[in-house]
Amino acid sequence: MPILIDFWHWWIFAVVLVIIEILAPSFFALWMAIAAFLTGLALLLSPQLGWEYQVMLFAVLSVLSIVMWRRYYLKNPIVSDQPNLNRRGAQYIGRTVTLTAPIENGVGKVKLDDSTWKVQGPNCDAGKKVRIIGLKNVVFNVEIID
């Protein structure tokens, strides 16, 4: 018994892939949805196309669309007006703060907004002003301000 696939099966599959993209955004299923839509369009224009060729066309179009998108994206990355939005620690670099705990053996603490952060830098007493110059994992590197 031959497998019978109509063009609208591919279009329904494309809609399902778009729904998957909406529910679990990965920006991957979208390109496969486009490939499914184009496969359905090819089947609409050429109804005698066998299911093997349909699946092959879908696979080729999926890979092609994903590769083309990746190539485009690498050449034209999305630039954010707030590059540190989800990098909380990086937002504090350059800021001047007061030590809440002395830096002893290269380690101390500062209070920033509602959080306490570890700092690394030259030994000094609590209450000194320091400038945050870097971040390694969740520890700030600081320099003493004279």
In a few lines, what is going on in this structure?
The chain has 146 residues and is of the alpha+beta class. The chain is 40% helix and 24% strand.
Describe the overall structure.
The chain is of the alpha+beta class and 146 residues long. It has three helices and five strands, in the order H-H-H-E-E-E-E-E. It has a five-stranded mixed barrel with strand order 1-2-3-5-4. It is rod-shaped and about 80 Å long.
Give the tags.
146 residues; alpha+beta; five-stranded mixed β-barrel; 3 helices; 24% strand
Unreliable spans: none
Task: Report the portion of residues in β strands.
Answer: 15-25%
The residue fraction in helices comes out at 40-55%
Query: Termini, distance in Å?
Result: 86 Å
The tally of strands reads 5
3D shape: rod-shaped
Largest sheet: 5 strands, mixed, barrel
List the helices and strands and how they pair.
Layout: H1 7-23, H2 29-45, H3 51-75, E1 96-104, E2 107-112, E3 115-120, E4 129-136, E5 139-144
Parallel strand pairs: 3-5
Antiparallel strand pairs: 1-2, 1-4, 2-3, 4-5
